[in-house]
Design a protein that fits this description.
This protein has about 60 residues and is mainly alpha-helical. The protein is built from 2 helices and no strands. The longest helix has about 50 residues.
Amino acid sequence: MRNLFKRLKSQKGMSGVLVALLLVIVGVGLVAGVNTYMKNASNNIQNAADTAVTSAINNTK
């Protein structure tokens, strides 16, 4: 956080501060989006693996 405030203070004029804040917001949104995608992909893979294992067990009986 300290580095963020130093960067904001070093910007020239109000437009620089707005650009810096916009970049921070875009970065946070990107990280949140990737995190959500990875969780969903992980859940899909786990469900597919469970289905495959269950199918394999049922076919051997």
